[in-house]
Amino acid sequence: MTSDEIIEYVTGLGGVLHLAPGPGGEWPEISWGDSFFYYAPDGVVPATTQPFATVVTKDYPDDRSSRLDRPDTFRVNIAAGREAFGAWADHQADPSVDDTVIAHPVYAAANWLAVVNPGERTDAVVRDLLRSAHDRARIRFDRRTR
């Protein structure tokens, strides 16, 4: 599973705003090249909510344990929700191991899961977690806009 396949899958879920910061935009340079997914059928980045998933391509200053500085390495991060987090979070896993569902190295307390270089073993799980995260984001959006 490539980052492009993840982007295609998530944007195909409907109502998704794919934010892809790059040079010349309003977003900080550290975010360039990464992807942030919001449920925003109006095309506007929600002011009061976090993305429901991200794809990061590099280490951040407070998040180096996944070793994303390796060639062709990325991590998909998913706001999994309490139930899915409890079912999938592996707090013992090395956060740099490929194709393994882990508790997010920084945002585990917020029930985020992560997978470095998802592959055959985690493909179906990642898709299911992304679909569920999208559904929860859609429900929150609908509640806020009623």
Order of helix and strand elements from N to C terminus: HEEEEHEEH
Q: What do the pLDDT scores average to? A: 95
- What integer value in Å does the Rg equal? 15 Å
In total, the number of strands is 6
Please work out how many helical segments DSSP would assign: 3
Strand order of the largest sheet: 1-2-3-4-6-5
- Count of separate structural domains: 1
- The fraction of residues in strands falls at 15-25%
Dominant shape: globular
Distance between the termini: 37 Å
Q: What percent of the residues sit in helical stretches (DSSP H or I)?
A: 25-40%
By helix and strand content, what is the structural category? alpha+beta
| Unreliable runs | none
User: Main beta sheet: strand number and arrangement?
Assistant: 6 strands, antiparallel
Can you characterise this structure?
This protein has a 6-stranded antiparallel sheet. The chain is 27% helix and 18% strand. It has one domain (3-21, 29-145). The termini are far apart. The model has no long low-confidence stretch (mean pLDDT 95). It is α+β, with helices and mostly antiparallel strands and 146 residues long. The protein has helices spanning 3-11, 81-88, 123-145; strands at residues 16-19, 35-39, 53-56, 75-79, 101-103, 112-116.
Report a brief summary of the structure:
This protein is an alpha+beta fold and 146 residues long.
Topology at a glance:
Layout: H1 3-11, E1 16-19, E2 35-39, E3 53-56, E4 75-79, H2 81-88, E5 101-103, E6 112-116, H3 123-145
Antiparallel strand pairs: 1-2, 2-3, 3-4, 4-6, 5-6
